[in-house]
Amino acid sequence: MRQLLLLLPLQIIVSTLGGSLPSTKMSTFDAPIVDILWLGADRRKVLLNTQKGTLYESLDDGRDWEQKSVHSLKVARLIMSAANASTVVAVGFRLEVFASVDAGTTWKEVVHPPGIRLSFMFHPTRANWALLSVWTEDCRLSLPGSPCTHKLLATEDLGAKPLKPISAHVVQFSWGRGDYADTIFYTHIKDKSKRQSILSKWMEGVDFVASTDFGESKTTLVPGGNKFVISEKFILVAQAKDVSAQTVNLKVSTDGSWFRKVGKRLAYVQ
């Protein structure tokens, strides 16, 4: 009913202006659509996946559709690079990752450590660079004594070579922006001998760090930095001040290397 109410005024406006409605064609898929992407240099190719994991392809702006296969993968997510509309990643229900650099014509698997949860983040301007993180399989609730950890890895070639390990016990991660876009920023728990816990409050022993060489080395920028936000001009970091009172200092940087204190105490927001 809501869709009808939204469409009806448009029909009235077009009719009043003496124009005609665009031609339409109804397409049927096996389940509701999850993701839909317009790919390629001319954005004429369309890929979508459904809740059942089926991948569909259209070569004419979405008018006609054909089921496609990515190595028999049931596709849970489609992710397109912001740097190149022909570069796309398909993530399976079992966390398999396949990458394509030709708008989905061919696919190659990105091999990564097994896990129970996965995140994938393209570099903002380099289509073949990406960050990938996995919570290891021993993070299941049925394995409470295991050494569960959240691993962060990186690639410069969409997995053509083995992924480069950045850190374990990672809390949060991101590429930089602007002049420091190639820098990997993340927060991590320093003591990696214990099972990693979820950051549900401000914690000691968590640092905000950066790496400019894909994990070969790292620089601690804000000791005690628990969480951060990166914009085009600023990096804001919440630094634990008093964990018993659950207060933090807010640190800010404009160059990605030097941070100064600003603001007031903050309450933890998950």
Automatic annotation (TrEMBL):
- Domain of life (superkingdom): Eukaryota
Q: Does the keyword Ribosomal protein apply?
A: no
Record-annotated Sortilin N-terminal domain positions: 54-261
Q: Any signal peptide, and if so, which residues?
A: 1-18
Name one cellular component (GO) term: membrane
Q: Signal: is it a keyword of this entry? A: yes
Q: Which GO terms describe its biological process?
A: post-Golgi vesicle-mediated transport
UniProt cross-references to InterPro entries, sorted A to Z:
Sortilin_N, VPS10-sortilin, WD40/YVTN_repeat-like_dom_sf
Q: Which UniProt keywords apply?
A: Repeat, Signal
Question: Which Pfam families does the record match to this protein?
Answer: Sortilin-Vps10
Q: What is this protein called?
A: VPS10 protein
Q: Which organism is it from?
A: Symbiodinium pilosum
UniProt lists the gene as VPS10
